[in-house]
Amino acid sequence: MSATPEDMIPAPGEWPVDPQDDVPISDNRIWVDGCFDFSHHGHAGAMLQARQLGDELYVGVHSDEAILENKGPTVMTLDERVAAVEACRWVTRCVPSAPYVTFLPWVSHYGCKYVVHGDDITSDSNGEDCYRFVKAAGRFRVVKRTPGISTTDLVGRMLLCTKNHFVKSVKDTLNGEEGSGSLEERKHSANSLMQRIRDYATDETGLQPGPQVWIWNGSSSAKLGNTVEEPGAFETVVNGKLPRPGQRIIYVDGGFDLFSSGHIEFLRQVLTQEELEGHRRGWYDEEQKVKRVKEYGEDYGPAYVVAGIHDDDVINHWKGLNYPIMNIFERGLCVLQCRYIHAVIFSSPFSPSQSYLEAMPLGVPDAVYHGPTTFIPLTYDPYVAPKRMGIFKETSSHTYQHVNAGEIVDRILKSREAYEERQRAKLEKGVVEELVKSKESASA
């Protein structure tokens, strides 16, 4: 028998995150919930659109048990999924273990007036609409679902070992010169993709400029190995916020495939280490904070983090099989939505040479960071140049350092039968949900 809203209301003091007492409902506080298994950019797109509808965004994340009962096994644990949601720039607060069926008492407890979801139907294990209660109360809002990406699609790529998602050239794709379909269709796809990059390169409001975005144009040999020294050329894709006075320029790079808690914790640690460095240089002294607010209208952190993202063929060269599972745009959008970065460079070289680092638009970085482990089997040290330049730093080990694309694919393959069944069930549910959606549209 299904749980009722009354069964699902926590007792005082037992809500998963504060506040423990009900707060006044605000039209500008929005609620979104979901599984968020893999932090793909479709999830981020829903959160961005929801955030643009209000001033605060609360995100409920379902428990592993609730997802298993209603949908099938999760790939990522609740802790890993929560870490991904909390890292999204547009999220105000994450609420773990939110019920699979969205009950009004939960939404109202946290003071959220409206619940936002994509324009697809989500049903529970009984085949009923998960949002039936909030729809009946007139507190449901619909946003566009991001096309071409889903957890189901990504799992399919892993199980089928496909490569047709690869992108040969970032620049050619954005110019409409690469891709499927006619020239007109490619141009339309390119314009849509460019708009999505602009949308994701926004600040925490989802409305104002945020991260800066570049493409690095260099030779294939300079991108793949460590034998070619060339500065290449940096091309601006999106004009965002540039560093402010006193901020240290920090460079990180990677594949960021299946952007997960391992990547997120690495980026968070980079900022944490730079905050410690900030304390050492007096960044947080009260007089310094007052001065920044007086001169620039707000305070800001001591570091500006630039993330370089490698091309698909570079990752495939090193890792083989059908890696990366996400193409460079999918990976780039995942990095772009992360609150721990301030700029992105598409098509960065695998090994950052001295020529590349010296040619960077913001000048030579103050530090180049790398994590303690790597997913790619290396035949040489890609960070010889930053080490020689005295700017290399390494983050410490952490709980999620084993969580990378290889680990996630292994989880899928070890439980292949269960995930294949999940894929079949998802397709069957999709047919039913499409019928419900058609009926709703017809009666609207």
Automatic annotation (TrEMBL):
This enzyme's EC code(s): 2.7.7.14
PANTHER family, per database record: ETHANOLAMINE-PHOSPHATE CYTIDYLYLTRANSFERASE
GO CC terms of this entry: cytoplasm
SUPFAM superfamilies linked to this entry: Nucleotidylyl transferase
Pathway given in the UniProt record: Phospholipid metabolism; phosphatidylethanolamine biosynthesis; phosphatidylethanolamine from ethanolamine: step 2/3; Lipid metabolism
GO BP: any one term: phosphatidylethanolamine biosynthetic process
Region (Disordered) residue spans: 1-20
Origin species: Aspergillus eucalypticola (strain CBS 122712 / IBT 29274)
This protein's name: ethanolamine-phosphate cytidylyltransferase
Gene3D superfamilies (UniProt xref): HUPs
Ranges annotated as spanning the membrane: none
GO molecular function: ethanolamine-phosphate cytidylyltransferase activity
Record's keyword annotation contains Electron transport: no
Every Cytidyltransferase-like domain range: 32-155
First-level EC class: transferase
Keyword Flavoprotein tagged: no
Family, as annotated: Belongs to the cytidylyltransferase family.
Pfam families: CTP_transf_like (PF01467)
